[in-house]
């Protein structure tokens, strides 16, 4: 269903998506027909089309043209087109050929993500070589997060080794064994399919950063041989982003049907001390990305006349406790008056986490560690302050808990319950506390 709601309500996005889909040699997906996405090649072509249409909508409607583009694996084809290096039809042809070949080799292997640095990952990969079958580092997403590729016969063995090391392994179901030796049987066929690919100059004042080298590339670098090498070489996303953002302040936006790289971006920011404001648009209205760019200092042209400022009351955490209205103002006081106490506490915690996280948060994230949701140490301090100051007698800290929404909510529920027992509710929150 990716892009379906936006396609129905956004004429610009619909037009650009149709143009991208029509440029593909195979038209086997459309957001309104809800076809089966059980083919890898269909998923890859659809993902590319949504990325291109989203970016073109942002530029057309809001004048938001990026100064730098970085693409992760398949995303580099979209980035090259948006930077001007490939026209729409050549980019579509490349995506089609690439996705068909990857679908063919998909049964030969798979991918596992793990929390490892590059050196350790290389050592583990070398330890799992059995004759011609070998494990390789396919992607370096952060200084401490990699993706490993392995033949099907080695996947279980690799996962068990990573799990025993505490590397938090996760199988990437459906991911083909790209960026490894397993693609070598199809590289000549890819080179043949890309004969006649035309290199075009990049747009003025636009930089395309390669995730093959981690450095900017020019028109001369981006012939057919580059795209053949790009499918075989590991994805150096961490290097590309760190080199791009090493000086000055940057607004980094992920344009993808689902957030995948925003949390790695936050981790790279923390590791290198970069001045980066990260944002994942995912399947929301492109106006969200324009608003994010605008409030962080990027140039945006609004397609409407701005409205006059609106006066709003201050948030609850700044409410004047001296004003006794008889209505609970603290979030904890309001929750104690509702049914479904435990669920209400969890909803309150989730709402604050959603306000701080760079990705969309739902009920499915209640047991996900906050770090994986993109919250860094300063965000956690803000979370702690906003939750504890909502209590009538803020404690120094929470009872023992894990860094997840569900565990934090359970610890808060203990505090609120204990507070209720000490202080019967006989009136307003302030009177009850004073009594």
Radius of gyration: 25 Å
The count of strands amounts to: 9
Number of H/I helices: 17
Helix proportion: 40-55%
Strand order of the largest sheet: 3-4-2-5
Short description:
The chain has 435 residues and is an alpha/beta fold. It is 46% helix and 10% strand.
Descriptive terms for the model:
disordered C terminus, globular, 10% strand, 435 residues, single chain
Mind explaining what this structure looks like?
By secondary structure, the protein is α/β, with parallel strands linked by helices. It has helices at residues 4-9, 11-23, 40-62, 75-83, 88-105, 118-127, 152-164, 184-193, 224-232, 237-244, 262-272, 286-295, 331-336, 341-356, 377-388, 405-422, 429-434; strands spanning 68-70, 109-114, 136-142, 145-151, 170-171, 207-209, 216-217, 249-254, 275-280. The protein has a four-stranded antiparallel sheet with strand order 3-4-2-5. A three-stranded mixed sheet has the order 1-6-7, sandwiched between helices. It starts with a helix and ends with a helix. Mean pLDDT is 88; it is low at 425-435.
Give the SSE layout:
Blueprint (H helix, E strand, L loop, with lengths): L3 H6 L1 H13 L16 H23 L5 E3 L4 H9 L4 H18 L3 E6 L3 H10 L8 E7 L2 E7 H13 L5 E2 L12 H10 L13 E3 L6 E2 L6 H9 L4 H8 L4 E6 L7 H11 L2 E6 L5 H10 L35 H6 L4 H16 L20 H12 L16 H18 L6 H6 L1
Parallel strand pairs: 1-6, 8-9
Antiparallel strand pairs: 2-4, 2-5, 3-4, 6-7
Helix pairs in contact: 2-3, 3-4, 3-5, 3-12, 4-5, 5-8, 8-9, 14-15, 14-16
